[in-house]
Write a structure and sequence with these properties.
The chain has helices spanning about 10-25, 40-50, 110-140, 160-170, 185-190, 225-235, 240-245, 250-265, 270-280, 280-285, and strands at about 50-60, 65-70, 85-90, 95-100, 145-150, 155-160, 195, 200-205, 210-215. The protein has about 290 residues and is α+β, with helices and mostly antiparallel strands. Helix 6 (about 225-235) crosses helix 8 (about 250-265) and helix 6 crosses helix 9 (about 270-280). It is elongated, with a radius of gyration of 25 Å.
Length: about 290
């Protein structure tokens, strides 16, 4: 006779949920099985208790395209029964879970199944954020942007700072997929990568890649004239007003500004204002000059 497990109560569910979230935010320790990613480690606490035989997590990469984020167990089981689908919509992306139940769990509470999916999603995101915040603390505690992406650059999670920095140079970025190629070569993993005036720390984490981003501290080689034009435009002047101030043609002022935009990898005055503000200290330092022999 087949043993049918008793359905868990909400009190038991919340106890498991608390344990999963505590594990997600605890100091990172090596997994008992190094082949298990964070999602699998956390899913193992939930799924067997709720009679879930397999669980997959996808994110919407495009209007009609979904990218696989994680699977538990690692080798999905084959079953003729139709899985339950759970969708969690966010402003930037949608998350879709496919839940295959054991036969004895076919009447499981739909709200509890939704709770499992939302808890695992939250736990994986929290785990990534904790790791990135700890890395920030080791490197000075800067206000860095954080994101977790897959190998194809599909964004699993991105905090507000990450979105702000990317949209400064790509104003129309929709938050679903990185706007630049993702380089995971050994050199980049050791030293980071730059793109359009931003510096990225790149760190693989199980099946995902963690990105931490800040403005690139290495200032572009702006000429004194370009910097003058940039500051005046940022202050609110028009090209005609800058031309009168600096005794040049408006077309020359325009040319200087677009050279600045090109060097900074930006396209809007608001981004220029932010860049000047963030780099004020470095820009105000006296430039080093090389002495010439007379």
């Amino acid at each position: 006779m087949t043993h049918v497990a008793e359905p868990i109560t909400w009190k038991q569910f919340f106890a498991i949920q608390r344990s999963v979230l505590q594990q997600a935010t605890a100091p990172v320790e090596p997994a008992e099985d190094p082949k298990l990613d964070t999602f699998s480690q956390l899913a193992q606490q939930f799924c067997p208790r709720l009679g879930i035989a397999q669980l997959t997590w996808d994110i919407q990469a495009d209007a009609d395209e979904w990218a696989r984020v994680a699977t538990w167990p690692a080798s999905p089981l084959r079953s003729a029964a139709a899985p339950r689908m759970v969708t969690i919509d966010e402003a930037e992306r949608a998350h879709r879970f496919s839940v295959q139940l054991e036969t004895h769990a076919s009447t499981a509470d739909p709200d509890m199944i939704m709770g499992v999916c939302s808890t695992l999603k939250m736990a994986v995101e929290l785990h990534g954020q904790v790791e990135m915040l700890l890395a920030d603390a080791r490197t000075g505690g800067e206000d860095l942007g954080h994101a977790s992406v897959d190998q194809d650059g599909n964004v699993l999670f991105a905090n507000a700072r990450f979105q702000q920095l990317i949209q400064r140079v790509e104003p129309d970025w929709d938050g679903r997929r990185l706007p630049m190629p993702l380089d995971t070569s050994p050199n980049v993993l050791r030293h980071g990568m730059t793109w359009k005036g931003l510096f990225f720390y790149v760190q693989p984490n199980s099946a995902h890649i963690q990105l931490r981003v800040r403005p690139d501290r290495r200032l572009p080689d702006l000429s004194p004239r370009e910097l003058e034009v940039a500051r005046l435009i940022a202050s609110g002047m028009t090209f005609k007003e800058v031309a009168r101030e600096l005794d040049m043609a408006p077309s020359t002022a325009s040319t200087h500004l677009y050279k600045v935009y090109d060097k900074l990898g930006i396209s809007r005055r608001s981004a220029l204002v932010e860049w000047l503000k963030e780099n004020a200290d470095a820009l105000n330092r006296p430039r080093q000059t090389t002495a010439r022999a007379s």
